[in-house]
Amino acid sequence: MIRSLYTAASGMKAQQLQVDTIANNIANVNTSGFKKSRLSFRSLLYQTYREPGIPQANSQHDVTGLQIGSGTEVAGSSKEMQQGVLELTSNKYDLGIEGSGFFEVELPNGERHYTRNGTFRQDANGSLVTAEGYRLSDQVQIPDDAQGVSIALDGGVYAITEGNEQQQIGAIRLHVFPNPTGLRAMGGNYFAGTPSSGDPAAIQPTTGGAGMVKQGYLERSNVETVDELVSLIVAQRNYEVNSRAIRVSDEMLQQVNQLIR
Q1: What is the dihedral of CA 177, 179, 180, 184, to 10 degrees?
Q2: pLDDT of residue 48
Q3: pLDDT digits (tens, 9 = 90+) for 178-204
């Protein structure tokens, strides 16, 4: 019965982390380019009272043995990289990715981070930057006299000059990882490469499976609210069942204590 207290408590702790993860997904349902997280669980150690297959009487063997587990724990979390819906914004500096690539931005300290959030702006120098002021690593420079900017599906950036002529001023590349689920979430919709994700490959959009860049669109979060609410209800019920197991174990211990009276 003492074992059951700790076993059920491990289940409550695991479900609490599940609820925390679901809450973060729901909170970011309107965050552009957000990728939802998913937890995976594994069982804890087993105590073996009788080994499976040990010899018994009449030359028989124990088919199943006797093993009692000690609960569960969170094995890890992963980002689900499924494509989000592209939403029309008509903003010329909003860029949506239809495919598996990432934009690469350069931080002030020289580090490179990656994002699916294509909400860019033009700074005083004519560079494309994020809302935090991080510059796109492709260093697209928009002339002061440009009448407009056009970005093609293949990442080509064109300045529209007087007379409605287009002049190419740069190109935006997409970066593809061998294992994008191994990226480290840095907050702010940014990811950093890890040994698990592998090194990124800079690829021209529309080639190499990187996808394409769509001007005037933003990728919505891939969180499905209904699915998250169902998962939340399931996690809540699992939490309640584990708490009930603790209550039952406590009642059984109480009965044992009353035997000496």
Answers
A1: -110
A2: 84
A3: 999 999 999 889 999 999 999 999 999
Domain ranges of the chain: 2-81+223-260, 86-219
Relative orientation angle of helices 225-257 and 2-27, to the nearest 10 degrees: 160
Give the pLDDT of residue 174. Answer: 95
What is the Cα–Cα distance from 179 to 197, expressed in whole angstroms? 4
The pLDDT of residue 163: 73
Residue 194 CB contacts under 8 Å (≥ 6 apart), including other chains: 182, 183, 184
